[in-house]
Every structure is written in structure tokens, then in C-alpha cells.
Write a structure and sequence with these properties.
The chain is α+β, with helices and mostly antiparallel strands. About 35% of the residues lie in helices and about 30% in strands. The protein has two domains: about 240 residues, Aminopeptidase (3-Layer(aba) Sandwich); about 120 residues, 2-Layer Sandwich (Alpha-Beta Plaits), CATH 3.30.70.360. The protein contains nine helices and 18 strands.
Amino acid sequence: MHDMKEGYPESLLMQMLETYSPSGSEGEISKLLAEEMRGLGFRVRVDEVGNVEGRAGSGDPKVLLCGHMDTVEGFLEVKKRGRVIFGRGAVDAKSPLAALICGAARHLEAGGKGSLTVLAVVDEEGKSRGMKHYLAKSTEVFNYAIFGEPSGAYAVTVGYKGRLLFRVSVATSAGHASAPQLFENAVYIALGIIGRLRELDGRWTAEGGDLFEIPTLAVTAISGGGADNTIPSRCEVAVDVRVPPSKTLGAVKEQVLKAIGEAERGEAKVVTLVEDENWPYMESPDSRLVRAFIDAIKGVKGKEGRLSRKTGTSDVNDFVHRFGSSAVVYGPGNSRLDHTPLENISLQEFRDSISVIEGALGRLCR
């Protein structure tokens, strides 16, 4: 059995960082976390896609602590410089996951009440295969859910925007580039569609409000054409749309499809697919879960914690949409370092975040 002595959290984090686990290659870290959680006294199960689930405690409330074990591609040398550790996942999101595991273990070791489930999922940086698999299989309802992402140890995240991913395909008849007037150019038609989408984005911006409060739109990929002497007969555009909690996915989707439909297309065939949908999420700042974290941060830091809202999405969006549980997003780290070659975590902040999680659990599970 492991115990939660002073050096264990850092040792666990170092092992996690040294185990390279880009999305789709989480096998080794899945084994590592299963072994470590068993050593901490959790009842552990690894599911068909590699998610690791550790359960401990009993009675109410039921609390889910969920983090992801995958990272983006690109191994970074794991090194400690003074009080800072560098490595891929140091911020996004192995230190938040390690903090959840250690905070839960400390709560239980101190005799804390409640039923805790620590869930480490795969593929959050990809297509959220781990969370989608869990949601498809699970019927368990939790009183509270804590998702591990970098909020900074002294803040708690209470809102994420939703997301729509569109794929627009334009098809025409190919022709010789020496007679462009005789053929419809798929790239030009796609550019006309992009123009309409940019007009829509401009109207959203004109509504006013900060970046969290308005929908946003970005063309994130475009491909088309073939031979350099042939009028393009195909073009494909990816469009990433972020949706604030004040809007519904349906209403924003309708606006995007209308803008695409308004573009001139001649005889071209235009097909639009919605490839991914994530509902927005917003937790009440006055909920018991939020107050538990605010008070726990004050207990550790000496001053009240901040509330933050993020323009991205995470697994919390799908979870809350499915179950409606009270949920927050919390973890150490500066999210501006996500996916960068300078990804690093302060050991003091990491240790403080474990104390905050333990303190929040203690307040929730009285």
C-alpha cells in the first residue's frame, strides 16, 4: 500500500509525465494509474477503451473526480528546475489528474466520508472517446463532479462554451485552367461561403459582450484542387463554432447553415455535415460545490478564490449535458501553457491544489 507522505504526489506526477501518452497511445499510463490507485486503496477497474476507474469510500454524497491521461503529440523532456517541473502534460492535464487522485486519497486517509470515484479517461485531446464510452455505459448519478483541467490552483472554473464542428464540401465539374470562364471553380465557391460565414461572425461580435458571452466562428482548415493546370472540382472547409451558455446549439447551428445556404453556388453541389456537438456548460456561482472550492482555496491561500469561465470545451460539457450533475473544473497550472513546448508546473501550486481538493471534499462530505 502507498501512503500519502510528503514526497508521494511529486513522485506520482513525475511517473505520469515520464510516461508519454498522446491520444490513442494511453496503454502504459493506464496500467500505471491502475497500479497506483490500487496501492492507494481504491477498487480499480479498467474498461474496454482503457479508462481507469478507482472507487473508495461509502455512503453519500457520491463524488466523481475525472481527469484525462492523454496529451497532445510531442514529447517534452521531463526535468525539474528548482521548484518547477517541465514535461508534456505538466499543465494539460496530468498535474490536475494527479492532484485529484492525491486529494481524494488524503480525504479518505483522514477518515473523510462519501463515495469517491476517480475516473481517468482516454482521448480527451482527440474525439473524447473515453468520456463518450463512459457516458454510453454508465447510469450512475453523482451528487457532485470535479473535472481536472488547469484553472490555476487559486481559481475554479464554472463555465465552458459549447462547440459545433462543421465540414462543408463543394463539388463541381473539373475543367482545363486555360478556359476558366467555362467551369465553376470549387475553391471560389468555398471562398464565397467563407465570406458569408465571416459576415455572420461579425454580426455576433457586434452584439457586444466579452469573448465568453458571444458565439465565435473560425475556419480552421481548407483543402481543394489537384493538378495546377485544372480548375478545382472539389474544396472542403472545416468550421469551428463556439457557443456560449446563453445560446442553444440548435439556434446557432441554424444561423450557420443559413449563412452557408445564402452563398452563391451556381450548379455546384454543396454538402454540410455537423461532425461534432458539445453543449455549453455553466455552474451556478452560488452552488454548494462552488462554495466548497472557494472556501477551501481561502483556507489554503488565505484569500478567496476566483471564478473563471473558459471559451474552450472539455469532457465536463458532455457529462453535465448527460447527467445534469453539479460540476466544476479545477486543477493547477497556467492554461496559456497548454500544448506549448514550455509546459511546466509549479510544485507549490501543485501541492496547494491537492490541499484545496482535500478541503473541498471535506466540506462537501460532512
